[in-house]
Design goal:
The complex is a heterotrimer of chains A (289), B (540) and C (315).
Chain A: H1 12-20, H2 23-44, H3 77-113, H4 115-129, H5 133-144, H6 148-174, H7 178-185, H8 190-226, H9 238-247, H10 254-281, H11 283-288
Helix pairs in contact in A: 2-3, 2-10, 3-4, 3-6, 3-8, 3-10, 4-6, 5-6, 6-8, 8-9, 8-10, 9-10
Chain B: E1 4-13, E2 16-26, E3 31-35, H1 42-50, E4 57-65, E5 68-69, H2 75-81, E6 86-89, H3 103-115, H4 119-132, H5 151-163, E7 169-173, H6 181-198, E8 201-206, H7 209-215, E9 218-223, E10 226-232, H8 233-239, H9 243-252, E11 271-281, E12 293-304, E13 309-314, H10 320-327, E14 335-340, E15 343-344, H11 354-359, E16 360-363, H12 377-381, H13 394-407, H14 424-436, E17 442-446, H15 454-471, E18 474-479, H16 482-488, E19 491-496, E20 499-505, H17 506-511, H18 516-524, H19 528-539
Parallel strand pairs in B: 3-8, 3-9, 6-7, 7-8, 13-18, 13-19, 16-17, 17-18
Antiparallel strand pairs in B: 1-2, 1-4, 4-5, 9-10, 11-12, 11-14, 14-15, 19-20
Helix pairs in contact in B: 3-4, 3-5, 4-5, 5-6, 6-18, 7-19, 8-19, 9-15, 13-14, 14-15
Chain C: H1 2-28, H2 34-39, H3 45-55, H4 61-73, H5 87-122, H6 127-141, H7 144-158, H8 174-208, H9 211-218, H10 223-261, H11 266-275, H12 279-307, H13 309-313
The chains are: A mainly alpha (289), B alpha/beta (540), C mainly alpha (315).
Amino acid sequence: MSDAMPQKPETLAELIGRALANRSFVIGLAITLLIAAMALVSFFWTPYDVTRLIVADRMQPPSWKHWFGTDHFGRDVLSMIMIGARNSIAVAFVAVGIGMGVGVPLGCWAAARGGWIDEMLMRFNDLVFAFPALLSAVMITAVFGPSAINAIIAIGIFNVPVFARVARAGALSIWPREYILAARAAGKGPSRITLEHVLPNIANLLLVQGTIQFALGILAEAGLSYVGLGTQPPMASWGRMLFDAQTLMMVAPWLALFPGCAILLAVLGLNLLGDGIADIFDPRTRRRA
Amino acid sequence: MSLLKIDKLSLKIGRLPVLRDIDLSIEAGEVMGLVGESGSGKSMTALAIMQLAPLSARTSGRITFDGIDILGASEQQMCALRGDDIGMVFQEPMTALNPVKSIGAQVSEGIRWHTRASRAEAEERTRQILDRVGLPEQKFPLSRYPHELSGGQRQRVAIAIACALKPKLLIADEPTTALDVVLQAQILDLLKELVRENRMSLLFISHDLAVVTEIADRVTIMRQGAVMESGDTARTLSEAVHPYTRQLALASTHVPARVRPTVEPDAANLLEVSGLTRDYPGRRGSLFSRPESVRAVDNVSLTMKPGASVALVGRSGCGKSTLARMILALDKATAGTIRFRDQDLTHAAEAEMRRARRNMQVVFQDPYGSFDPRHTVERLVAEPLFLLDRKIDRKERRDMVGRALHEVGLSRADMEKYPHEFSGGQRQRLSIARAIITRPKLVVADEPVSALDVSIRAQVLDLFAELNQKLGIAYLFITHDLTVARAITDDVLVMHEGRIVERGKTSDVLDHPQTEAAKALVSAAPDLHRAIARRLQEQG
Amino acid sequence: MTAYLLKRLLIGAATLVVASLVVFLMLEVVPGDPARLMLGMSASDAQVELLRDQMGLNQPLIVRYLDWARGLLSLDFGKSYTYSVPVIDLIRERLVVSLPLALIALALSTLIAIPVGLFAAARRGKAADTAAMAVAQVGVAMPNFWFALLLVYVFAVWLRLVPAGGFPGWGNGVWPALKALILPAFALALPQAAILSRVTRAALIEVLGEDYIRTARAKGMPQRAVLWRHALRNAMIPVLTIMGLQFAFLLAGTIIIENVFYLPGLGRLIFQAITQRDLIVVESVVMLLVATVIVVNLLVDLSYALVDPRLRTRQ
């Protein structure tokens, strides 16, 4: 006898209410919005112009005038962090886009067809997983030279098997359900079933993985820029700022502190957001609520 | 003094009352049956006795076991009781055992924990108890892992774990519900014997009145967290004084009033299946040898006339669902042919199959799993309209869905809702609405009522009977439950290990089975009237 | 069991072959002539042509791939364009830094993460669990090279407990060498430990909801014994998977961390090689790291079979 209680209907208002009661979700969303807002504002306004180098203002510790201090060229650190946010978000966004755009169709296709196609996809995953993003970035850079675009490609390639794996696992758990059989009995083919039934039911999973990969993308971009394989100067990026700060750490520790905090905060925010979304859509927590 | 005495037990999870003022007592050596439909609180009562209810549960009242106040006992005291003085067997044998530990380790663990016996001693006792539950060491060494055993064998291991230390009280929560009727009968016999040998008390929880009648001396009937009635099994059920008891008893023996539709004996066959076979690739011996295949369906032939109602019965794993899926063209046959309304389905391309699909639809077992939770009822019920040759507009679609909903006893307004807003029985009605919306000639129903509570089951069976008559739809009913077959079908096919071993009129085959397989099914099937009669006879 | 092992081995070998093709072709499309690069701009065309012949650069692609692959198998990676020494010698002297670093980091990460995960799962929902997971959440978000900078600032600049960078070599005693590796290992390990402890906790909690846990409790086993005897082993599969993936991250991470601490490891080697366009070194080091990742994942696959008896009998 099935003891599963039928779930109560949930309106959009109730869903939003539940989301707002979730601590991870609210904090994560707030931080993410803050970083996104910083990046957006930087297109129109920054406290100081970072393209002008003012030697008189160099190496200023944090003050009311320069909240986060200035660097060895006299550039305002806060302004550079704002522009860096733009850069980080753009790189991570495109990399997640590549991963989702290629990985999700691949994963769904493999789950729908099974057999040797599925086996091929798994082997392809094994292959790509053997090249950590940093290694493929090293290779791509060795061949084409360092640039932000190459960093995006390297991170994006690594995201493909991640999303393929999540989509495949999710789709495989949907395919044996009886409502899929019912759809097949209604004459619907694999692609239509994937669009109508599978994708909507794994969308939560993909959303959660999306936030995780977004966060990892920001971390990876910072790492690549730090070692000089990512964003190139004079474009501001958080990783590059940390590289510049390293040699000056004895005299100007704030130069290393603030960009690092920015990375930490952005990644933390996205991870909390992902946790929150996963919690909200988890049928188990839903039943508890 | 009673071995177990429950006084005014109430239990709340959050603000939700799950149990209200439960009274129950079990004497030493007595078998108590606890009956109720889903949500009646019978499992929660058992967990409360074990103090294994969810942490968020708050209890009040009193549970006394062998002089010990259970609700006041410390976790340490409870650990000493559990597995030693009180054993418990759960419903789902497939998940009840730890997959990474051998069965020997899992049985001896409890023995060693409670008795501090040496490894060798514990293993000796493990051997004895496994042998006793029907898993002799020659065939089932202690080093076996759960995944190497069948469901019935795993339930025997679970019983061995619970009974290893000869507890004073054994609690069995729906121990046979996940098993087919033949296994159910075997497990019931085993439990009866163990109780008698060890003078155990047994609290036997089930939704099935017939099963409880076979095993219990006394019954307690629960509904919505409260006890409705309690008393001697035979008397309580035969007299059925309490209205709810009577309702349950009537529902579980319900036969729909059905006027047999006139089946023209010389009408053309609706469905002809001949020599149908399905092999599945099996386990590979080594990487390079060809895997041996497993034959799920073996050379099956059958025919159905328009409007006929046929039951396909057999034990679990006999191949009946595979056969059904091949008929529905959801699975490919290895050999043989299926002709439906003079069209060969085995060699048709998907595009040619649309007409056939329109004329045969399906109803599944699980009323929860058979709907996409994200679609409205309108979209779900309308799904087979995809098979119509012409495009239909929104208004026409809503009219057709509305009519189908009306035919299954739901209202037109229900089409805006989502499936989770319906109860199990209503969902099964939705499932039927979806199946009949294209006016098919054949509906294949795979265990359509076995997940439903008895009172709901009776209503759904009535609906099936009515539609058969009204719309002239032929049914292929797949079931392991002979009462369902008897209630709703005219002909029966008995399937065993992939083959059809016996066929004929339903009443003939069920009353006078010829083959071993059919006899086993018939004699194992629980039957409330028979069980009550037997009890009354025993008591004189 | 043997079928499973064989299948995994074959897949591992095939992946290795395809990966080597990818690496080879990738660097094959690179613009510029390695022979010209080695000899410098002043060399005559004839000299370059001679060297190209010696290096086998005039052979067809497939022959060169096979030559290169045969070289890999016998650990003969060729000669560095810039150092003019066998690449294997360069790798060997850098490996004694990078390999201990990655292994210490992996050990640290595991030794921290598993107990924390167990601790948090056993106290699920309580204050200790919430606090541990909040710290882990921050740890996951921490970029390891920034964490490294902070460690340097605190322990090397402020407290002067360890050197801020550089590596004395193993020749001058084990302790000074280890001391130079402590901070980098922590910087690598802690963010990974944060991830692993979250995975361990989640896997344990998932397993603790299974039916067989209830069976074990009904046997009279106390919570703690159930956690250790029944839950932990079942939770090991996701944990092992993540550990395998983490080894790849740790290896890649050493590339960055070595730059923070000026450690003469493979990571530094690869960056110097990129700036000097010493492609054969890049190719060899990348291939070595990729092969290591593949072998580690193979080991993880094989260890599944030890943990889960179902894999031993299934194909």
